[in-house]
Amino acid sequence: MAQTEKKGGLLRKSSASKKPLKEKVVLMYDEIFTTEDPSKCNPRFWEELFLMKVNLEYLEGKLEALDGEELMKIKDNINCLFQHCIQALGEEHPIRVVNALQTLCALIRGVHQKNKSTSGFDIINMLVGFDKAELCMKNLMESLDSLLCAEGSESLKSLCLKLLLCLVTVTDNISQNTILEYVMINSIFEAILQILSSPLSRREHGYDAVVLLALLVNYRKYESVNPYIVKLSIVDDEATLNGMGLVIAQALSEYNRQYKDKEEEHQTGFFSALTNMVGSMFIADADEKISVQTNEAILLALYEAVHLNRNFITVLAQSHPEMGLMTSSTSPVPTTPVTPLGTTPPSSDVISSAELPLDADVQTSNLLITFLKYSSIVMQDTKDEHRLHSGKLCLIILTCIAEDQYANAFLHDDNMNFRVNLHRVPMRHRKKAADKNLPCRPLVCAVLDLMVEFIVTHMMKEFPMDLYVRCIQIVHKLLCYQKKCRVRLHYTWRELWSALINLLKFLMSNETVLLAKHNIFTLALMVVNLFNMFITYGDTFLPTPSSYDELYYEIIRMHQNFDNLYSMVLRLSTNAGQWKEPASKVTHALVNIRAIINHFNPKIESYAAVNHISQLSEDQVLEVVRSNYDTLTLKLQDGLDQYERYSEQHKEAAFFKELVRSISINVRKNLAFNTLSQELLLKEFSTIS
């Protein structure tokens, strides 16, 4: 007997002795694509259709192949199919429900492909018809809500979420997707929360639920009242918030693990042998090739939670075992095709703190630590646009955290010490720090380390000015909290001071190139004012009196940089050019730094001359500093401990619109409805009576 092959909805004998035979479902689709009502000749047409295995490829392809005029001719049949799909969602037979969900996905995607250039209104009309849209969409949303909240099949819930993601991302700009008006009116917010609060549902569907919520929150968020924003901002259920935090932590952990695996693989490969042979001259270039695709969708979800919900701040510090060290024996090995790393939900189980015992030998972690590690990876290379967006979003999230009183309380808590292993860019002039040598410190030290690392490693031709400004603002906000609450943080402040001085040096060395693109005086002023903050209030938050002495030592030691900066800004502030005003602000801000330099330098020179010493040691300079404080006069500068609070709508709206557009396209591209094969579904439902 000749083998039967199946292709594009056709069944044919391999001998090709007969005409190809079409699958019954394909024949039924063809009937829908005529101008006649398919149920005229067969009253059971719609009943039979939803018992047939869906051919997604054929249905989508058929819709895409029609031109606008042809599509309008069969609009009534398309509307009828859409309405019968919604009716089938209420059926008791699960196979009908599955086929209806998959058919809806194909319909929405197919009609969208055909109507890319048209508005959402046309898509609604084509799918359901204006006259019935409100009732049909209400029924659809209620059915999806019921399926998501029911005790039933996890496969059905997964398909419901995929259908909703398909619905949300049907247009690149989700705010132009008029279909979402019905998702706003008929909210599924509670269903999403229910998924996140249940350990079983969260493991299976948490990732899709969190991404869906992040996208819904961004629908017309600046133009109208979005109910998802309102509801997310007032969630106070601990289990739900922790569930959301665990889903985000797992996705970020998965990214960190993938990066670490690639890094280890990279180091033991060809480049490792090459760099060992010729030295470390190629190390930076080699390392740039380590690339794991960033996950902006999950980062957006974290941002919305931190920005909108003050109760979520507590979740950042919720301790759980290090996720990378925990594996679940029950997790199935995924058999789906390999997709770009970081774009799909993690395959391993999302754990909850109640589900795993805390082991004394296992490093405890929390969402903030996982996020800081993630940030340290994506902020390494900002040349790639996606990483630049990710790096910016990481800094925006840290800005929100640095402004929050409660977040600052646990960041600076001496009783909450962690060992945070941030990823550091390999550089020729420094050795890679051994993980085991890292001390346990309050979490704010890791935030400051991350900021210092960014400052040190991004002084380059394509200068990321915006990221530097955000970075300095985060440091400033943390210092404001320390000054206000008199927190004496034991931190290696010298590393920060050195990084800031080198940044000023870089700005001056590249003045001409940078001024062609940026107002470098804004950044220079912020850096100088950080030093002014230490000079004016350092005695209230630096850990010891000797730390304050070391500050003066660094300013005096690096005085040439401050002198050069003063010469530069003085030159530009006395000229009648465009930089006159911003440069003069830096001139005024340097008054106390210059007073320190002009006061102590003659004293140091005098001490050296009297004691016949050509070059003073650090201890000798510090001795001069300590004995001459009483004759130093400084000016009191106002507003050093004040800052403008973060505001998304006024300053970041354009960034978030572009980011959400990018996420929408990516989610739609990676949305695979065939991940649930019909065979698996049939097997699952064959046991259901």
Automatic annotation (TrEMBL):
GO cellular component: cytosol; membrane
Residues in Armadillo-like helical domain copies: 435-671
Subcellular location: Membrane
Highest taxon, organism lineage: Eukaryota
Listed transmembrane segments: none
InterPro entries, alphabetized: ARM-type_fold, ARMD3-like, ARMH3_C
Skewed-composition ranges (Low complexity): 327-346
Keyword annotations: Membrane, Transmembrane, Transmembrane helix
Region (Disordered): 326-346
Protein name: ARMD3 protein
